[in-house]
Write a structure and sequence with these properties.
Layout: H1 4-7, H2 14-20, H3 22-37, H4 39-52, H5 57-90, H6 97-126
Length: 139
């Protein structure tokens, strides 16, 4: 009789390692797709919240990172939108133009920041690493 434990590989199987990366990759993909329709941001947030508690340490860091990316992006987007909307009626007397520029700049910067965070998340995920600073404000 042969010993079955000796025949099986000791490390993780390649399928299990690939399967572990699927859900965080879906979340990042949904976030990036959200720039075209907006609704997939919410779908990505739901997937991250549902799977964060049952995930391993690597995936948990990616889900935490994605959740914080969503909420910080929403907060800054709303701030930029509020400044922009205040600037629109004030642009009649020309004092609103700087506010419109500031609001638009904040909204554009939030979009760039969100894409950068998603790309960095995908980078660390493809290397099989936990995100090093999932609670960071910048990247």
């Amino acid at each position: 009789m042969t010993d079955l434990a000796a025949e099986q590989p000791s490390g993780p199987t390649p399928g299990a390692a690939e399967e572990e990366k699927v859900l965080p990759a879906i979340v990042y993909g949904l976030y990036l797709l959200g720039f075209t329709n907006g609704l997939t941001f919410i779908a990505g947030l739901i997937v991250a919240y549902v799977n964060r508690d049952t995930a391993g340490p690597i995936n948990e860091s990616h889900f935490t990172f994605a959740i914080r990316t969503f909420w910080m992006a929403i907060a800054w987007f709303l701030l930029g939108m509020a400044i922009l909307l205040v600037g629109i009626p004030l642009s009649i007397v020309l004092i609103g133009i700087p506010l419109m520029v500031l609001g638009g700049t904040i909204i554009g910067a939030v979009g760039l920041w969100c894409v950068t965070r998603c790309i960095l998340g995908i980078y660390y995920l493809s290397r099989g690493e936990a995100y090093p600073r999932p609670r960071a404000w910048l990247v």
